[in-house]
Design goal:
seven-stranded parallel β-sheet; 14 strands; about 250 residues; alpha/beta; binds NADP nicotinamide-adenine-dinucleotide phosphate; Rossmann fold; about 40% helix
Length: about 250
């Protein structure tokens, strides 16, 4: 089976490509630095030639509200049109748990726009919605830092290891399309301020985390349902503490 991974050189994409190759599939890692660009369409038709399945794990290079919306809309339109022409029989995309619940977050609005294009495309699809990656926790801390203080909501978050996301995507890629959405989350729901505190402790970072129910998460106020999954999500195996330990061990 030929599987094209759009964004196949990124954090998730490179793990997914490795995982699917180990399972014996013919996998193409597609990204601008391998000559495939979903914005300019460079190399796109050639990459999709003979493809059975496409997994889209591309990410926007710029996260400013308008730029990120333009990226996911243009990339989504170009990719889905090329897939229709190539006769692709399963489109898979990686989205984010709770995207529709936080319209004040421009990145989430762009992911909802990406999902809507997929649902309207007529191509059989599966959307996998993941919670925040462990690898993203440092970025959350950075986004909320002022001086030596980090103000964060104590709302629950249920982050996941990128390895677990890649494993789930590989399972989805070799299964039939569900024409719907599946959620995946990490094994533990943790207050966001506490999650970042644990990360800073493990990385010997002296910044201080202050709980603040009004603190915005990339523009949005959170509650315990904002970033946590609904009923019956798939649960990743790797715990945050174990992941932190592995990072420290290099
Ligand atoms: N971060 C989170 O916590 C989280 C949670 C849930 C879902 N997600 C979703 O997970 C997905 C993957 O994220 P990631 O962290 O693995 O991303 P990443 O490491 O930033 O990788 C992005 C990939 O997209 C490629 N790309 C960029 N522009 C492209 C274009 N015009 N055409 C084709 N490919 C292009 C990049 O290629 P180059 O290197 O050549 O530019 C790279 O391979 C994203 O869609 C994100 O929304 C993220």
């Amino acid at each position: 089976m030929k599987i094209v991974v759009i964004g196949g050189t990124g954090l998730i994409g490179s793990k997914l490509v490795g995982n699917l190759r180990e399972r014996g599939h013919d996998v193409l890692a597609a990204a601008p630095n391998t000559g495939v660009n979903t914005i300019t369409r460079e190399g796109l038709a050639e990459a999709l030639n003979g493809a059975d399945v496409v997994v889209d794990v591309a990410n926007a290079p710029v996260w400013e509200d308008k730029a990120v919306l333009d990226f996911f809309e243009t990339s989504g339109r170009n990719l889905l049109a090329a897939e229709a022409a190539a006769g692709v029989r399963h489109h898979i995309a990686l989205s984010i748990v709770g995207s529709e619940r936080l319209p004040d977050n421009g990145y989430f609005r762009a992911k909802v726009a990406q999902e809507n294009l997929i649902k309207a495309s007529g191509i059989p699809y599966t959307i996998l919605r993941a919670t925040q990656f462990f690898e993203f926790v440092g970025g959350i801390a950075q986004s909320a830092t002022a001086g030596q203080e980090i103000r964060l909501s104590p709302a629950l978050i249920q982050p996941i290891a990128s390895d677990d996301v890649a494993e789930a995507l590989a399972d989805v890629a070799v299964a039939l399309p569900v024409n719907g959405t599946i959620e995946i989350a990490g094994p533990e729901a943790i207050p966001l301020d506490e999650l970042v505190r644990r990360f800073l402790r493990a990385t010997e970072d002296q910044r201080k985390v202050l709980p603040d129910v009004h603190a915005r998460y990339f523009g949005a106020v959170l509650d315990d349902q904002s970033l946590t999954p609904g009923d019956n999500p798939r649960i990743g195996a790797i715990r945050f503490e174990d992941w932190l330990g592995r990072q420290a061990a290099g």
